Amino acid sequence: MDQIVPHASHWGFFDAVVRDGVFVEARPFARDPMPARLVAATPATVHSATRVDQPYIRKGWLQGRRAGHARGGDPFVPVSWDRVTRILAEEVAQTRAEHGDNAIFGGSYGWASAGRFHHAKTQLQRYLALGGGFTNSVNAYSYATAQALLPHVLGDVEVLLGRMTDWSAIARHARFMLCLGGLAEKNGQVTSGAAAQTYVPNMRAAAEAGVRFVNVSPFRGDTMEAIGAEWVPIRPGTDTALLLAMIRHIMDRGLEDRGFLATHVTGWDRFAATLGGRTPEWAEGITGIPAATIRRLAEECAGQPTMLTAAWSLQRADHGEQPYWTLVALASALGSIGKPGQGVGFGYGSSGGIGNPRRALPSVSMTATPNPVRDFIPVGRITELLENPGGTMAYNGLNLALPEIRIVWWAGGNPFHHHQDLNRLLRAWSRAETVVVQEPWWTGVARHADIVLPATTTLERNDIASTSRDRFVRAMHRAIAPLGQARNDHDILADLADASGFRDRFTEQRDEGAWLRFLYGRWVSACAKFGFEAPDFESFWAEGHVEMPLPAHGEEYTQFAEFRADPEASPLDTPSGKVEIFSEAIAAMGLPDCPGTPSWIPPRESLLTAAPDELHLLSFQPATRLHSQLDPGPIAAADKIQGREPILLCAEDARARGLAEGQVVRVWNGRGACLAGLRIIEGLTPAVALMATGAWFDPLEPGVPGSLCVHGNPNVLTADVGTSRMGQGPSAQSCLVRVEPWREALPPVRAHVPPPIEETV
Ligand SMILES: Nc1nc2c(c(=O)[nH]1)N[C@H]1C(S)=C(S)[C@@H](COP(=O)(O)OP(=O)(O)OC[C@H]3O[C@@H](n4cnc5c(=O)[nH]c(N)nc54)[C@H](O)[C@@H]3O)O[C@H]1N2
Ligand SMILES: Nc1nc2c(c(=O)[nH]1)N[C@H]1C(S)=C(S)[C@@H](COP(=O)(O)OP(=O)(O)OC[C@H]3O[C@@H](n4cnc5c(=O)[nH]c(N)nc54)[C@H](O)[C@@H]3O)O[C@H]1N2
Ligand SMILES: [Mo]
């Protein structure tokens, strides 16, 4: 008899069907209005041959080839849990004693799993914090630049992370929505912490209510046909120029909201004084958008209730601060901030759950543990940290000291997927004495580790999925026994804590069941303060989910409404209490790459300076995966071309290079090269190439920096440069490449085959 249990993932809720101990099918959750298709890839991925079956140590590490030796090329040696726990606990103790607690890098950025208790990074950081501390990273890859910038401009990052102006407000009050980077349908399948799929229904409802959408993007496919958006093609990385010219035109026509600028905005005149040459004709030369279209868009925005949005991708580019700040300046000129369903909001097209109508209720969350070590880097600056021990790094007005890192530890993230310029990372990675990775699968980062600890997947343990962006809290029942010798991250770390004498502080003497009851119970109490009475744990667990109430009909939410109504009584948390279009704090940093007002600064790499045969590569989020997760599954496999990640070009660019649909090509620049399968599409700005992230890194010669990635990980091509010395965000989207036919024999893809194993040293 099949057993069916409730479960969840970042890519959607599902019911897990188990037959004879095997997870055979993921059925959509009955209450999901539009079940995500990615859940179907979960069973094959969980049971894939690329699971790590037991603990391993890199042969070279055991033989003393540690710092100074490239990782990725050696075979792995199987070891017992007892032995690996002992070796690792000793290594940690020795490193802490000889080099200090900050010699351990535990930033461990990554999405890990939807379950909130077993969230790997949270568990790892708890273990490392209680053991004495670790060097951390701050901010999320997704919107790191905006996390640094927006507090200076709008007072806090709630505009990014918190409760956003909801879709019902937009549908009711806005008539026009300008979407930089579109509202990509694929991105809505995913919500951190899991959600029902409301993304497409919300957007459709707004279109049906009469909102007209404009998709300003290099790619027409960034909005779905059903919302009937106008496509305005743009050169990547040039949105700031478009926005400055729109503002300039609004001011030329006297259409700006003088009253709002006077009462709610600071620094407008200083900013306006920089707009002298920023005409629509000037912007046409940069963006490729006709000046007449720029004028029309400006007038459309000024002439009707308008919502402005930008995808997170825009700030994952060189000077990514500028398009976001300039978009806030445009909203200021329109005087729309805080008007019902209008103003500016980021990421409506970047993830499920953004702007999902909901009541202000907390989510179930794991306790964060204070870290005694103060050292940190902005996320994405890992290579510089490893390259430059004892050096400093400018970040948001600070001068960060970079400690010498001896141990790099990752649980629930895959830097050999997510980091830029992987060849440079590979070189810097060899500076560490020891690299520890907890992973269910032989991913890129696991293959470049010294100590590999096999972790369970969510299906092998009990947990709770929850996000503040959705109205369901979902029980995640254990469906199958752990595969091989895999263990829960929590249990791996509890044993390590035990070896160092602090098991009880780590576990607080709770087992899994007690933790889940504790976290759930704490959430129930928090909800009670908001007037929502959640069921007790037993009922929740038996039912499989809790449904939180929706807002009452007509109860819509608009950000900054109170500030708009009374900026004296409800000021923003900026130095002036107003929207800062000149920021004294940023100006005082004295940075040419991020001056005191929103500015056009030509990008480091773009079509403006490209050679005639270069293309601008956008490495966007995959429709067929969550980042590198699910890459071994059937949905990702079906999309590949001769086993390689597709690269999308327009017909004219393919023709110019003598390339045909379906052929394998070599994509390269001065930083690296990968293979890809050519797909020719319509609706793409010429000289732009698109490649999804997430195909597992598969160097032809493992361990050799610069080796060809035969599978198609675009991060061998991207540059690892901070957006500016203010934000220091990742800037993957500013990347030029060349594409040529691959004429040699096709090397096999080995990304999903476990690495060589040697039984003894
Ligand atoms: N070129 C380019 N690069 C990018 C981006 C881009 O746009 N372009 N986008 C960036 C962005 S926004 C992001 S968020 C990052 C994403 O980067 P990551 O979050 O690092 O990517 P994931 O593939 O989700 O990695 C999560 C890892 O956790 C593992 N995992 C899952 N469950 C568990 C568990 O229970 N325990 C343990 N121990 N491990 C588990 C998975 O197997 C996987 O290897 O990529 C960034 N990189
Ligand atoms: N299916 C799926 N969904 C996901 C994820 C996933 O891995 N899979 N990852 C999730 C995560 S962690 C994140 S952070 C979000 C990311 O959300 P986003 O950052 O919004 O996602 P991207 O796909 O990188 O970019 C969206 C679109 O922006 C356009 N674009 C890129 N550069 C420019 C530019 O300079 N100007 C303009 N106007 N447009 C540009 C591209 O055409 C691209 O399709 O997605 C989330 N959603
Ligand atoms: Mo992200």
Automatic annotation (TrEMBL):
What does the record give as cofactor? Mo-bis(molybdopterin guanine dinucleotide)
Which family is this sequence assigned to? Belongs to the prokaryotic molybdopterin-containing oxidoreductase family.
Q: Which InterPro entries match?
A: Asp_de-COase-like_dom_sf, CT_DMSOR/BSOR/TMAOR, Molybdopterin_N, MoPterin_dinucl-bd_dom, Mopterin_OxRdtase, Prok_Mopterin_Oxidored
Q: Which Pfam families match?
A: Molybdopterin, Molybdopterin_N, Molydop_binding
Question: What organism is recorded for this protein?
Answer: Sabulicella glaciei
Q: Which residues form the Molybdopterin dinucleotide-binding domain?
A: 615-735
Which parts of the sequence belong to the Molybdopterin oxidoreductase N-terminal domain?
Answer: 7-47
Question: Per the database record, which ranges form the Molybdopterin oxidoreductase domain?
Answer: 51-498
Name recorded for this polypeptide: Molybdopterin-dependent oxidoreductase
Q: Which UniProt keywords apply?
A: Metal-binding, Molybdenum, Oxidoreductase
Superkingdom: Bacteria
Under the heading PANTHER family, the entry gives:
TRIMETHYLAMINE-N-OXIDE REDUCTASE, TRIMETHYLAMINE-N-OXIDE REDUCTASE 2
Q: Which SUPFAM superfamilies match?
A: ADC-like, Formate dehydrogenase/DMSO reductase, domains 1-3
